From TrEMBL:
Probably involved in ribonucleotide reductase function. This is Protein NrdI. The gene is nrdI. It holds the Pfam family Flavodoxin_NdrI. Belongs to the NrdI family. NCBIfam families: nrdI (TIGR00333). SUPFAM superfamilies: Flavoproteins (SSF52218). It comes from the Bacteria. Residues 158-178 are annotated as: Disordered.
Length: 178
């Protein structure tokens, strides 16, 4: 009997299948900004790499490939309904994205009263991730510093494991409108 040399089996890898209309990202910061560009201006001040959730329906959808923190504005003008932008709802309804969400930061307007930063609260509760910070409109220099430092600390403390969110538990309009 001759000895058979066996090569070790490589560990399984996760494969993300993307359609031609999808854009894959490996950034750990993903954001949505409306046509006002307030959230984009905040991201620019952070001076970090970030991927933007598409604004228009016909644009390629975004698919996360690694754990990330989401930054989103709050909609609804203080009414508490429709707080999470539809584009963010669509993005998080993809189980590939929702399963990698680690935390949320919300922009808002203090004129909204109790609904200030409400989009972050809704996403945090629905996706069972921490609400990390909220800031007004496009943020102050102090907000920028606190978020930059906070994200750095968060990624050093957080395990690089996605939360266990069942694939059928998406965010729908009813959930997001409160």
């Amino acid at each position: 009997m001759s000895a058979v040399s066996r090569q070790p089996t490589p560990p399984p890898t996760s494969v993300v299948v993307a359609s031609p209309s999808e854009r894959l990202t490996e950034t750990d910061l993903i954001y949505f900004s409306s046509a006002s560009e307030n959230t984009r201006r905040f991201i620019d001040k952070l001076e970090v790499t970030a991927a933007r959730i598409p604004l228009r329906r016909g644009d390629d959808s975004l698919v996360a490939l690694r754990p990330f923190v989401l930054i989103t504005p709050t909609y609804g003008g203080g009414e508490g309904t429709g707080a999470v932008p539809k584009q963010v709802v669509t993005f998080l309804n993809d189980p590939r994205n929702r399963g990698l969400l680690q935390g949320v930061i919300a922009a808002g307007n203090t004129n909204f009263g109790a609904a200030y930063g409400l989009a972050g609260d809704v996403i945090s509760a629905k996706c069972r991730v921490p609400m990390l910070y909220r800031f007004e409109l496009f943020g102050t220099p102090r907000d920028v510093e606190r978020v930059r430092d906070g994200l750095d600390g968060f990624w050093h403390r957080a395990p690089n494991v996605a939360p266990d969110t069942p694939a059928d538990e998406g965010i729908d309009k009813e959930d997001c409108s409160r």
